Amino acid sequence: MLTNITFLKGLVIHATDGELGTVDQFYFDDETWAIRYLTVETGGWLGGREVLISPISVLRADWPGKRLDVALTKKQVQNSPDINTHQPVSRQHEAEYNRYYGYPYYWGGPYMWGPAYCPSGLAIPTIPSREARAGRTYDESTDSHLRSTEAITGYHVESTDGEIGHVDGFVIDDEAWAIRYIEVATRNWLPGKKVLVSPAWIEQVSWQESKVSVALSRETIKSAPEYLLSRPITRKYEDQLHVHYGRPPYWLHEAEHKSSFSLSGV
After folding, report:
1. 130 has pLDDT over 60
2. Which element (helix H / strand E) includes 182?
3. 254 vs 162, more confident
4. pLDDT of 265 above 90
5. Residues 211-225: pLDDT tens digits?
């Protein structure tokens, strides 16, 4: 299911033995655009401490009830590694976090979630292979590619022939926990209209200049199907979007990955 990230903020996180807190923001991988962590405001029971929750732990999303059920206990979360969510999360921090919860490294495989296509495929802890253990020092020493969705919101968006607006939001897939589209708020030449652009069409993100460059012309985006927050994103709308942009849909590419994933017996 696709949903705007706006609807995830403030969702109540329910552990197996009670409420953990509410969703605040999200860390995504700037290579795959997968949502790697949710930051959760725990409130009074942890003295205001913010914690990271991985989509690997999510059991169910109850949109009408505005809650996420996770396969964690409050004690697990209380004793989890203390990571400052106001600072960049390093690969070393991630490795410590994954070891604590018994999760395999998502950066150690061919799919969006490493050895699995979706985070739910990593929910059952696995025993690291000898190769994985041998490569652990290297894996943990590489740079993390995590970025905050809050930090990139407001970035200027550049088309091939000029500026088109700014990043105003994100549309995510709650199965793969991936950002499927960036919500672009246009201005001046397109008053009030919002459109969606796939991360796959981004040529470059300049973190220094706070700018996102897309391989699309201004006219192409100008005539794109309008995006309305109040309108559910259907597959019909997505089809129209990809036909308009002349780009293959992500689900065809990922169907091939799912097929190879199944055939491999993983």
Report:
1. no
2. strand 178-186
3. 162
4. no
5. 999 999 998 998 899
